[in-house]
Known about the structure:
- This protein is of the alpha/beta class.
- It has a six-stranded parallel β-sheet with strand order 8-7-9-10-12-11, sandwiched between helices.
- Strand 2, helix 6 and strand 3 form a beta-alpha-beta unit.
- Helix 1 (14-41) packs across helix 3 and helix 17 runs parallel beside helix 18.
- It is elongated.
- The N and C termini lie far apart (85 Å).
- The model is unreliable at 1-10 and 200-206 (pLDDT under 50).
Amino acid sequence: MLTMEPGRTGTLAADELAALESIQRRVLWLATNMIHHANSVRPNLDGSKIGGHQASSSSVISILTALYFSELQAGDRMAVKPHASPAFHAVQYLLGNLPRKYLTELRSLKGIQAYPSKSKDHDPIDFSTGSVGLGAVAPAFSAAVARYARLHFGDVTSKRYIALLGDAELDEGNVWEAVFEDHIQGLGNVLWIVDLNRQSLDRVIPGIRAAQLKSLFQASGWQVLECKYGRKLKAAFERPHGEALRQRIDEMSNPEYQSLIRCSGEEARGRLILPASDPQGVAKAIEDISDEELPALLADLGGHDIVELTNAFAEAKANPHAPAVVFAYTIKGWGLPIAGHPMNHSALITEEQLKDLGASLGIAEGAEWDRFPEDSIEARVCRTAAERLRGIDEQIPAPLVTPEQIPTSLGIRHMPRSATQEALGRLLTELERIPGLGERIVTVAPDVAVSTNLGGWINKVGVYAPDAIPDFEAEGPRLLRWEPGPTGQHVEFGISEMNLFMMLGALGTSYELCGQQLFPIGTVYDPFVCRGLDALIYDLYNQSKMILVGTPSGITLSPEGGAHQSTITPSIGIELPNLLFYEPSFGREVEWTLLEALRQVADRQHGKTTYLRLTTKLVDQSLMDPAIQRLGEETLRRQVLAGGYRLIDHRYDAPNLVGSPVVQIVAAGAMIPEAIDAARMLHQEGVAANLINVTSPGLLYRGLAEARRGHLRQGTTGADAGHLGELILPEERHAPIITVQDGASHALSFLGSAFGARVVPLGVDEFGQSGTRADLYQYYAIDAESMVSAALLALDLS
Length: 798
């Protein structure tokens, strides 16, 4: 029997090692074959290359084998580098987590994805990867979230957070933002394994760039480990004159090393000895190694030695006080005829080469997709590993707060003149009235907590830090209590939007990954949503559920100028999948949309992330009263959450104009007061103007798009346009539309496609300037007078 006890740290038993090496050969075969099948066997009518990265998959075969079949425990969370997708799926197949049919469906519709996908693949995946660098750091932030959850609630279901990343990912700036991040320090359950095949990193002299990277990790408090050479090569170094051989290999350039392992033993011997600084020593070190053995010896790197890998993993685990990184030296294309070739990244081996590979690995004809025989030692290792890894997630309790427990209203009175950003700050302090919710809200900000109105909330719940930090400014009155400690519920970052979004995304998957339900709310200056956009997209793809508040927004932040004025963020809100976007105008709209956003987070199966775009502009709250009186509060709330409502309806607000020319003013957010003025001015001109307050242009667009897709699927035509059909009455659907928002003008211009009406889009299509709001609104033609002029022009052209 194999000894597979979880706490084992020493050398692997001989029978276990033999089984693991046999398993890694099968993983190599399955990964290579599924890529070959996708490209050369499965019908491909359009002739495009399918791809699959045989070389990049093979470089991590040993690492994945050591991890999944020996090292990982139930509750460990794993991110696998994008190009290792075929190898990862081969591992999951051998563990019994992936049906056999998917091995022939790599990169096909509804089949195995090009890169590991939490939402689209058919085997268990903790973190989607594919956006280089982001999948690598996601486990580290999830570990920080698990620490937060453990300090606040006691138990978590997760253990270690591990990332297998390609060496090229270390070129990504977001990786180093994470490495330097204070909230990652001290996380002894974080392990990064760098697949250092050096075709992307050490392009001139192996070890120089790696040494620089190691020093950066060490300076940031990480434990740095190395699997550079395998046991055979290390044994050669220990022999007489072995140090000369080590020095020769260490000093040669990466291109030289890659070419050396690809040539014959005789040629390799000469090329190894002649340029050496100690040629005689190198010659003596290898004199009793045959030409047949020499190339394999030179290629014996630590990243392909399961014993070296498991020993490094054990050493990393032995230090519970620091995150660890293991630099595993590998060969790109390991085990394949394209190993070490400088152009092997997208290379595919031929049919003949595949047959030779199968023969060398002992794959019988007709058994190309088989698992190991049930009575084999390899099958027992696979079963033992599968049993060890399964079961932890069954212990996750049901969510403590369900969508039904979150009310539709808090019943608070909003200030007569208020900004949406202020409303958010007041509402946060009221949320603890919802049973079980308040203690599970976590706010996050990148050094902008005060300027985004989180001060009252912070004074109530405190700032979070794993260890208490003394307050040296405690004497005297203070507007903000800033005493970081383990009970705080606000997480403050430095000015790093990437880290903010990665932390938000990790908080938004806390229930699935560590078994504790959290409700994350992050605030960031709205223009800097773009700075963290890559991470936001990753979070959405990874099915995170969170609340993002972009504030202040637009040129309404008038004195700040173009550097701090957002323009394209409404388009981001409309276009990103898995995202609900609201741009409220009034305090009640903030209240309703915030509560809906919390319900979305509580709904772990179908919920989405919500993005609120807010401003610091004071707005008269009574401007909403006519709509409340006309529609009733419940109908108005429903329409706000559906995407918009008629704030001014000429049939009620100007009944004397019924039958007059109609124009629709469609406005959002900060522009509502000016749009109200414009509608009233048009009434005085005899124009039956309506004002539609668009609270969510994204929902309106999706409703319209879904209606159109329905017509296409059914082969019918119709006037259905989702909620827009409720806002724009049938008799008004050819009336011109004036759209206006504090953002790019095109974002609302889709409204004309709903019913074929003329649209005049107003907005901000240049970088902003400093000035008063009135000056800027007039300059960019989004003031009331410009709306009136646009409406009259549109009517003339109709």
